[in-house]
Amino acid sequence: MARALIECVPNFSEGRRPEVIEAIVEPFKKTAGVYLFDYRADEDHNRLVVSLVGHPEEIQASLIEACKIAQKHIDMNTHQGAHPRIGAIDVIPFTPVSGIAMEECVALAHNFGERYFKETGIPVYYYEDAAKIPTRTRLEQIRKGQYEVLKEEAQTKPERHPDVGGPGLHPTAGASVIGARKFLVAFNINLNTTDVAVAKEIAKFMRASSGGFCHVKGIGLSLEDKGMVQVSMNLVDYEKNSIYRVLEMARMEAKRWGVSVAETEIYGMVPAAAMLDSASYYLQSNGFETDQVLELKLLQMMMED
Amino acid sequence: MARALIECVPNFSEGRRPEVIEAIVEPFKKTAGVYLFDYRADEDHNRLVVSLVGHPEEIQASLIEACKIAQKHIDMNTHQGAHPRIGAIDVIPFTPVSGIAMEECVALAHNFGERYFKETGIPVYYYEDAAKIPTRTRLEQIRKGQYEVLKEEAQTKPERHPDVGGPGLHPTAGASVIGARKFLVAFNINLNTTDVAVAKEIAKFMRASSGGFCHVKGIGLSLEDKGMVQVSMNLVDYEKNSIYRVLEMARMEAKRWGVSVAETEIYGMVPAAAMLDSASYYLQSNGFETDQVLELKLLQMMMED
Question: Of B247, B264, B283, which has the smallest distance from its Cβ to A264's Cβ?
């Protein structure tokens, strides 16, 4: 049995003090079974975004440690930054990668939320797939008015009470948003035309907000350097709205204007399953299993060690 | 820097005595950095085929150990089996998987051959990409007449002298064939027709032996249960003759008979690069790198640990 693998991208409200940033990421560097893919601090946002991959148990243990360090150094009463936030540890999303279903990731988020409050005293809101209240699915709704407004309203308005702890926020660390969400794939389609109206129109057909694919967000924009236009998308559920399906739909729509797909871009990380799914579709593979991929089988064996 | 990863599929002339088979594979099980993907003994062939993946140093160390155990237990003077062979340790092919070029794998085979002879006294022939004599590229040429003929001719005919050691073979273990070769991808294309002549004709267009792709072997055969025919192929260099290129060529040829591709099969293991190459082609990906695949980046990080 391969052990479950998750991604976690915690966001901390500290982007300016290098010694604090290094102290926060230290537990991720030293915990066996946790792989620190990346961490980026932004001074304007005054925010640190960390990318972790690993096993659920080890990720949670290292998070508790890192969050306690962040809690010690960050005071929301004096914190300033361009990015919306409600706490020293602002958001902790858990994302299934392999060997774990979304339902299990939701359970993990809920268990972690309880433990987190017990160990830090910081109240928790659940969001995305882990939301317990429908209006809390979207992060923006929870973060409305940010820390400064929430610290009042959490106490006075029942609909803004935290899911765990509260009603008042933590005096210095505020509150944290914990949840489970699918892996987001950034996928852009560049079209052989300079007419941005074509990209905007296609983006409209594709995205959920105007009635297209349920799990696609997208906009049309101009790529002046390339003499092309782009349908820039986020696939927020690559299992339901596969990369190939999105591409072929855009290609079909572009024909209406006699426009062709020049190239596509996958921006940032992508799970192997998302790429293999498209390879299998185009290759018409019958019965292809991801563990036929040598490196994926090797990874499984290494994780069982 | 990610460490090099290779595959190695050593073949031992023992398929009947379970205790000997287990003794031979023991070093592969216990050596850290060596992953035993599979081992299969065939009684009729009286042969053991082992699949290993790992780092070159650890693979070589475990091989030396396993080969000494095989040498101790197998006597070619009494060995019988349906599969052609020239030694107790019959063939040791090294195959690049990632972070290592074919030229480096050839150098590795040559270095290993010298060390192997020094430690076991078993003479070595180099084959495939590691062949030092052009007529030894193909295994069949080296194995002509098998152990029984070779043990005489190795001493009497200069063109049959081993590359390392000899001219006489080892008195009980015979000789070993060591080499480097590309990863072989087994790829079948099933066609929507019952006319096997179509599959045979397409296989002829595709394979190197009748003038098609330089690194494709293939035959046409009938799949009576499915009511289809199959072009059954081995892609012996998936970098030069990509899966997608082979498929699209077969599709194009099939049109001549109004026949379409019903499905394809990838049989057994395949390197990630072979699948990602096809995904990138069909998705028209610009600048896609394999380390954008989360699991492949994780694997690299785990290997650096």
Answer: B283
